[in-house]
C-alpha cells in the first residue's frame, strides 16, 4: 500500500495533480529534491520501505545519501 507520494520537479507536477484528483492523501509536491528530502526525513520511521523513482537529471541519490546520513 502506498502511504505517501512525493513529486519533485516541474515534470512531476502532473503526477501530483492526478493523485490529488483521485483523492489520494499524503501527496506532496516540491520544486526541488532538497525540500522533498527534508520533508521525507521527518516522516520516515524505522522499518519503512521507500521506493525512489526519478530521472537521471534529478540525481536523487544525493537525497538518499542525506537521509541515510552518508552526506
Task: Please tell me about this protein's structure.
The protein is α+β, with helices and mostly antiparallel strands and 71 residues long. It is 39% helix and 11% strand. It is built from 3 helices and 2 strands, in the order E-H-E-H-H. The protein has helices at 13-21, 33-43, 61-68, and strands at residues 5-8, 27-30. Strands 1-2 form a two-stranded parallel ribbon. Helix 1 links the parallel strand 1 (5-8) and strand 2 (27-30). Helix 2 (33-43) packs parallel to helix 3. The N and C termini lie far apart (30 Å).
Write the layout of secondary structure elements.
Elements: E1 5-8, H1 13-21, E2 27-30, H2 33-43, H3 61-68
Parallel strand pairs: 1-2
Give the tags:
single chain, 71 residues, alpha+beta, two-stranded parallel sheet, 3 helices, 2 strands, globular
According to DSSP, the number of beta strands is 2
Shape: globular
| Unreliable residue stretches | none
Structural class: alpha+beta
Overall average residue pLDDT:
89
Main sheet: strands, sense, barrel: 2 strands, parallel
Widest β-sheet, arrangement of strands: 1-2
Distance between the termini: 30 Å
Oligomer: single chain
**Proportion of residues in helical segments:** 25-40%
Kindly estimate the percentage of residues that lie in beta strands according to DSSP.
5-15%
Radius of gyration: 12 Å
Contiguous helical run count = 3
H and E order: EHEHH
